[in-house]
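Next comes a concrete protein, fold included:
___
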Amino acid sequence: MSRRFLGLDPGLRATGWGVIDAEDNRLRWVADGIVRSDESLSLAERLAQLFQGVAEVIGTYRPDAAAVEETFVNRNPTSTLKLGQARGAIMAAAGTAGIPVAEYTPNSIKKTVVGAGHSGKDQVSFMVRRLLPGCLALTPDAADALAVAICHAQNNGGLARRIALAESAR
């Protein structure tokens, strides 16, 4: 049974997205790109642009599940807060569409795709292209989003995580 996964790499200026199909252990690239927000607009308007852009991607490609990279805390608290707000807008777009959303740390994504949790962007981009022949991934944000989708597909769409959580709750 084939499943379609949407990976999202949140950003206020540009949110990367990538769509893949997974059947058994085979992965196939479907599409990727970025949703941009207009820096001349208010924060609320920019978040609305991200929400609408991701909603359009969802409407076009109809994924079964989505995954987003977790926010890391950087040195600038204002930037971290804005990134969190952008992340919330894109997660809300998936939630509004009724799509389950999983979250993965940057290190777990890199470990799944490259084999090492502290890999660089170039290594991630290289492996994404190797795992998904024909993919465009013209921007680092799109490549990162495809890596998120690959991570989610390799984790059975979060099934393994849900089973582990259910067993630990017993």
Q: What stands out?
A: The longest helix spans residues 77-96. The first strand starts at residue 3 and ends at 9. The two ends are 30 Å apart (CA to CA).
